[in-house]
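Consider the record:
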Amino acid sequence: MLKKVFALSLIAMMLLAACGPAAPAPEAPVDTPPAATEPEIPELPPAQKVAGDYTYENSGINATNLLDYLGRDDVFYIDLRNYEDYSKKHLRNFEVIPFFAYIYNEKAGEEGFPQLFKGTHDAPEAVYETSEAILNALFPKDKTLFIVCQSGGRVNMLMKMLAALDYDMSRIYNIGGMAQYTGDEYRDLITDTEELVVSGSYSVVAS
């Protein structure tokens, strides 16, 4: 009798289990969107098409393609014009370092001429013991430099000086002058309103 009761109980339990709620079906895998990737930074072209020619026309980057190489963290952007011209019109995020006012003059070292170097562009002569150290701080040797002026001439002069002072010229670009950046494609990148007018004097004090 007990065996029958046990058997009936076991059958009842199996029936109840069969009638219970079905196990939930496994959820379909959710597609995870691919991780965002950083935009690829274009490789820089050669700084000079012909080695030793530092003119704007020979530069690997100029008004025809500068848009492809702006906004890089691995480049210093420099404007060699004076402060007054720079304040009236310049490419945004370019740092102004006046070439004739601060870097070079044939009379540097004489009264009223505080520039860092004299001599010629191909053979610059340091006026102060710290001239080269200051130049290296303004134009770091371990950085890529994009340099602009009014027409590219001052950049050419500076690049000759830097070459004579053992800079790696494969990292220095004469991107020309503001006179070449007149196309509509550069309009949003140029400040062409007079933001300020600066006048000042320059002095270099040796410590």
Notes: The CA atoms of residues 161 and 176 lie 17 Å apart. Confidence is low (pLDDT under 50) at residues 1-12, 14-19. The first strand starts at residue 75 and ends at 79.
